[in-house]
Amino acid sequence: MPALNSIRKRSRVPILMLTATGKTKRVVFSFSVSYNRETRFTEGFFEKSLSYPQKEGQMGNYLNPDNEWFRRIVNSEIYVDKTGMLKYTNQVMNTMQNCLCVSRPRHFGKSTAAAMLAAYYSRGCDSEELFSSFEIAADRDFRKYLNQYDTIFLNMQEFLSQSGDMDRMLDLIRRSVLWELLGKYPDFRYFDNENLIRTMQDIYGNTRCPFVLIIDEWDCVFREYKTEKKAQEQYLDFLRNLLKDQPYVALAYMTGILPVKKYGVHSALNMFAEYSMTDQSIFEEYTGFTEAEVKGLCERFDMDFFQTKNWYDGYELTGYKHIYNPKSVVEAMRRHRFSNYWTSTETYEALKIYMDMDFDGLKEAVVLMLGGEAVQVNTRSFQNDMRTFKTKDDVLTLLIHLGYLGYDAREKKVFIPNKEIVEEFENAMSVGGWAEVMRILKASEKLLEDTLNGDEKAVARALDKAHSEVASILTYNDENSLGCAIGLAYYSARKDYRIIREMPAGKGFADIVFLPLPYTNKPALVVELKYNKTADAAIEQIKDRRYAGALSGYGGRILLVGISYNKDSKSKLHSCVISELC
């Protein structure tokens, strides 16, 4: 040992070691040199201060998982490349923008994205070959971040299902992660090896290698503990303490259905940049399947694109106007049949609970949307949970996040996106509470048939009934309520037609245009509505303003339908004129 008056200099020295397999490992030692003034003798020795960053082939359930989950996804019959998303997560790595919360509805690829991130960043595997044929491989920083981080992957639903309460759930998370951290780094000196945060700080202090944390089903607590405010706050505190302002966090990626919960001081997860169904921003093209991707799949599987669009399109984002439900598209392609696949694993009751809530204007909004209209909504008051509702807008906003409604961010309006979801609304209404609407929907098939056959009197009678039913729900009875009644009355037309309201045409806007889908053999319909004017006047307006010009490029038959409503008539409120454009 050196004397007390010796001078000691201590340095950290990285050593590259060549293993038997020919791979190099980085091991850090402390090299101490002391000089004794009395003996003029220099002493030196190496002191190991860091175990191997990763034992050969070592991986864990939560720490540095392997890439087998993502490999299975890639090896599936249908895999659409979404690895371009990694370019953005690489970009925010080790920055002040490194906390991301990306929320989407069920079956919109949340867990697939989480598996991709784990396979790319985890040091428990070698994923270069796995990613080599995908978009990210062409990026100049591909190898810079590939399998370079200690990665912790947590599926919160797994921990919740194994725990009886929040204390046990959080304790299970701590013990599970600590078990693997201490197993990988057994030789460090820990301040408190039962404290997860202090242990991660100690590991980072020794390795200087920060962590990537991936949290799937982050919001399961708010979906299953809907009324337990204390448990929710306890959970938020855990996440905040684990992730906020921690130098050991290189990237935190959370995903679930709901955005981050708003809770006064407990909204302190404000370090997260949020990307939800009301604003996906940079993640838009990774939210679902894009139109170009769906066209490619339809061509590959010989499936009709327009039917696919009618069934599964409709999630309108700011940059990408046509986002498709990926789960349903995949199932339709594989089974070679169009059906409702997205909600097939759940009952309609989940939707019905929210449809039946007693808020002013909620039922009216649902009726308007079923009639093909979009409804104004304020999404900002929503508290990002499944029980704190103060207005109909909060309920509608939840339905956006659940995937039951599409959202137009520019117009701030909601709508029912596609046939698959329309069926779900119909199922929810069929078990009670919506008798007026169900009567209209059941009569819609006959109304369309009468219209195509030119039976003007039958059409007028049917519209009398439909308008009367709708007026009993809506708070107004004018030309707009007539438009809603028309939309509902022709409900069954959606399976064969694309219905466009206020379509720009000629010298104005056609009220409603029914454009037949290419696989049908039905005529197009141009419908003009008149309030306190004649149906003949409606037909003349269609012709004078050349509304049929909106269908330029369409080579089939075109029927002109003029519908009038006279509120002062006691015997015959509606009249109808149908003629074919020559």
Features of this protein?
5-stranded parallel sheet, 20% strand, 5-stranded mixed sheet, 21 helices, 37% helix, Rossmann fold, alpha/beta, 18 strands, 582 residues, single chain, 4 domains, disordered N terminus
Describe the structure.
With 582 residues, the protein is of the alpha/beta class. It has 4 domains: 7-48; 68-275, Rossmann fold; 302-430, no CATH class; 435-580, Trna Endonuclease, Chain: A, domain 1 (3-Layer(aba) Sandwich), CATH 3.40.1350. The chain has helices spanning 68-74, 85-92, 110-121, 128-131, 142-145, 156-161, 166-184, 196-207, 220-224, 229-243, 291-301, 305-312, 326-335, 349-355, 362-370, 392-402, 419-429, 435-452, 456-471, 479-489, 535-544, and strands at 7-18, 24-36, 41-48, 99-103, 150-155, 211-216, 249-256, 273-275, 289-290, 323-324, 375-376, 406-408, 413-415, 497-505, 508-516, 524-531, 558-565, 574-580. The protein is elongated. Residues 1-57 have low confidence and may be disordered.
Query: How many beta-strand elements?
Result: 18
- Would you identify the regions where 5 or more consecutive residues have pLDDT less than 50? 1-57
The secondary-structure class comes to alpha/beta
User: How far apart, in Å, are the first and last alpha carbons?
Assistant: 108 Å
Share in β-strands: 15-25%
**Tally of contiguous helical segments:** 21
